[in-house]
Design brief:
Strand content of chain A: 25-35%
Radius of gyration of chain A: 22 Å
Largest sheet of chain A: 6 strands, mixed
Helix content of chain B: 25-40%
Shape of chain A: flat
Number of strands of chain A: 21
Strand order of the largest sheet of chain A: 13-12-15-19-17-18
Oligomer: heterodimer
Distance between the termini of chain A: 83 Å
Largest sheet of chain B: 6 strands, mixed
Order of helices and strands of chain A: HHHEEEEEEEEHEEEEHEEEEEEEEHE
Largest interface: A-B, 35 and 32 residues
Number of strands of chain B: 12
Number of helices of chain A: 6
Helix content of chain A: 10-25%
């Protein structure tokens, strides 16, 4: 079936696109054939650890591609706070959260998932951006010593969570042990404001928020386990309380502060992608705002403007676009401030540049109360 | 009991304890509490960065460093131990500390400034001697070469841009941050300083009697224009100087959204064997009482 949109697009684009490319580009309900997909250009992307994002074009050059990613799964103990608390972690590509992938609408994501023999458990991947087969989960379950390759078409724009989803209680356990990440599907012509004007970011940062559930012994001391299996039963009990012991960004308290603080300059536009695979959160930039925010993360909807705090539903990723106007140290927090301060959900931005007295000035410094 | 009531009770107890302490100077030969080993700190003049925040012409400036004469005094060689503190808890005088469960010879941690005051009074009664927290000046003198004072600069060098100071200080703190290991170590682990005082500057910060001041001075001569003293916040000395509300037990929860807080809060006491400074200390105690009961 040939839709009206395809006909229009076809007329407009016939001179620059081959018929095969045209059909895939049009997000058609008529599937592209394997031969057509095989004819698409391929690009191999090397993933980088959060909060950074691999190099990418904001506006796609040319037609759709097949973007290849490879992610090994690594089960490993990780330290999650400054008290040396150890989580029996599970990771995509060795990091918590797993790395962020960026493609454009109409691209094909081709992921090779590897479960090395050194691991002990089966794993898979459920992409919220993908359609069918439990987000790919039903087609990607692999045992230690196996690998699998999944291809899905990025048909919807936005920021989306991906996570491990083996089965039963394994699902939440793997997710709160670190197996979640984000994929961003950009519109081919990039991000736009509510008027359809282009928004271009100078920097992009990717924050994955984690809720961890670490068991304690009778004396209140954090328990340390030899293996994932040893930790499972106790951890499940804490999980069922629904009270996390840690709420942190990027796998550990303090992972985005001090030497690892995020950097920007006055006048730079920053896109902050925030994902939470399991639990609601409410990011807030102390002393700043969200100029344009896609709370639900889906770029087909116009962004909200001038937000103070934005809401990220558990199991989703959102994006906030902000141009820094004032230098200083900004705290970027989950504005449940107990979670930010006591449980760890705090990051810092170090922003350099010139101070703007018009926006703010300390008219008189603290001193004794004036009595007149 | 509400905090307010506790503080009033504390104030009353503090008032009564002075005569008790003085009376007990005669000594109780049956005291079961062993006396802590002390080190004599000789009278000396130290370069002492004044505690608090200093402003000149509406701008933060580095704390003035004053050559300060500190009279000789005796101070505990080691920080007060968890086991000694537990005796005070067992006696019903002290509240249980927020310290890890262990029987090792570690310093007490997880105590606030009020806990420290209470312990000092109880320990004085038990030993029949007069013990108190040090002033910040005494802590500096006892810390000797390990005394850090204000290791992070407060000065604002860019008149029109306060962020320059914030960012520089943030980076200094980040650079000074070492891998955190808040678990209390066996006493003596950090070794003695040149005066024989052990573990100063380790991972336990020490409460003092000194209050937080906000001082406004003139630009050129740094003549004091005004002082606002806040005895609800006290000075702790250690790896770097910290300011904590008197009721805070966990240093990491005492800071703001930005900054490197102390790993643990503990104490060591000054032994007043000949009381030249009693009057001065009484005045400070009175101020503390005022701060916590008003």
């Amino acid at each position: 079936m040939f839709t009206r949109r395809q006909a229009l697009l076809g007329a407009a684009a016939a001179s620059v696109l081959t018929p095969a490319l045209l059909r895939v580009a049009a997000a058609s309900t008529a599937p592209a054939t394997e031969a057509e997909i095989a004819g698409l250009p391929r690009e191999k992307v090397t993933l980088v650890a959060p909060p950074h994002v691999h190099a990418h074009e904001q506006v796609a050059k040319g037609g759709p591609k097949v973007i290849e990613f490879t992610m090994p799964i690594e089960e490993k103990p990780v330290v999650i706070d400054d008290e040396g608390t150890v989580l029996q972690g599970m990771t995509f590509n060795g990091s918590i959260p797993g790395p962020m992938m960026v493609v454009h609408e109409g691209d094909y994501v081709e992921l090779t998932l590897i479960n090395p023999e050194t691991n002990t458990m089966p794993h898979n991947i459920d992409f919220h951006a993908a359609t069918g087969a439990l987000g790919g989960g039903a087609l990607t379950l692999i045992n230690p010593g196996e690998q699998v390759t999944l291809r899905f078409k990025a048909t919807r724009t936005g920021t989306f969570v991906y996570h491990c989803a083996p089965e039963g209680p394994m699902i939440p356990w793997h997710v709160v042990s670190g197996m979640h990440g984000t994929i961003m599907v950009l519109p081919r012509d990039g991000l736009k404001n509510e008027k359809g004007e282009a928004l271009r970011y100078d920097r992009i940062y990717y924050i994955g928020e984690n809720d961890f559930y670490i068991p304690r012994d009778e004396d209140g001391n954090v328990k340390t386990y030899e293996s994932h299996g040893d930790s499972y039963a106790d951890t499940l009990e804490v999980m069922k309380s629904l009270v996390p012991t840690h709420v942190v960004f990027n796998g550990a308290k303090g992972s985005l502060t001090g030497d690892n603080a995020l950097k920007a300059s006055v006048g730079e536009a920053v896109l902050i992608v925030h994902s939470q695979a399991n639990r609601d959160t409410r990011p807030h930039l102390i002393g700043g705002h969200g100029d344009y925010v896609w709370e639900q993360g889906k770029f087909a909807n116009p962004p909200s403007k001038n937000l103070e705090t934005w809401f990220i539903r558990g199991g989703s990723a959102g994006a906030a676009f902000y141009t820094f106007l004032q230098p200083g140290i900004y705290a970027y927090v989950n504005h449940n401030l107990i979670e930010a301060v006591e449980l760890g959900a705090t990051a810092h931005f170090v922003v350099e540049g010139e101070w703007n007295d018009d926006l703010m000035k300390q008219v008189s410094a603290p001193g004794p109360i004036q009595v007149n | 009991m509400s905090i307010k009531l506790f503080e009033i009770a504390y104030g009353a107890a503090a008032l009564m304890s002075v005569p008790v302490v003085l009376a007990s100077l005669a000594g109780d030969p049956h005291s079961a509490m062993p006396m802590a080993e002390t080190v004599m700190i000789p009278a000396r003049t130290i370069d002492f960065p004044l505690p608090g925040e200093f402003l000149a012409a509406n701008r933060a400036m580095a704390a003035p460093v004053e050559a300060t004469r500190v009279a000789s005094f005796r101070i505990m060689k080691r920080q007060v131990s968890l086991s000694d503190y537990r005796r005070c808890v067992a006696a019903g005088a002290c509240k249980a500390p927020d310290a890890p469960a262990t029987t090792d010879d570690v310093p007490v941690t997880g105590i606030n400034g009020l806990d420290a005051d209470v312990y000092a009074r109880w320990y004085s009664q038990e030993t029949g001697e007069s013990w108190r927290l040090p002033t910040a000046q005494e802590a500096a003198a006892a810390g000797a070469e390990r005394f850090a004072g204000e290791s992070f600069s407060a000065v604002s060098e860019a008149p029109g841009n306060p962020a320059v100071r914030w960012i520089r200080r943030y980076r200094e703190e980040a650079a000074a941050k070492r891998p955190s290991d808040p678990r209390p170590k066996l006493r003596g682990s950090y070794g003695p300083n040149s005066l024989g005082v052990e573990d100063f500057g380790g991972n336990v910060w020490e409460w003092t009697l000194t209050c937080y001041n906000r001082v406004t001075v003139t630009t050129e001569t740094h003549e004091v224009l005004s002082v606002v003293e806040n005895c609800g916040v006290r000075v702790l000395e250690g790896r770097h100087r910290a300011y904590m509300s008197g009721f805070v037990r966990d240093g990491r929860s005492g800071g703001c959204a930005v900054g490197t807080p102390p790993e643990n809060l503990g104490m060591r006491l000054v032994h007043e064997d000949h009381n030249p400074a009693v009057a001065a200390v009484r005045r400070t105690l009175a101020k503390l009482r005022t701060a916590f009961t008003t």
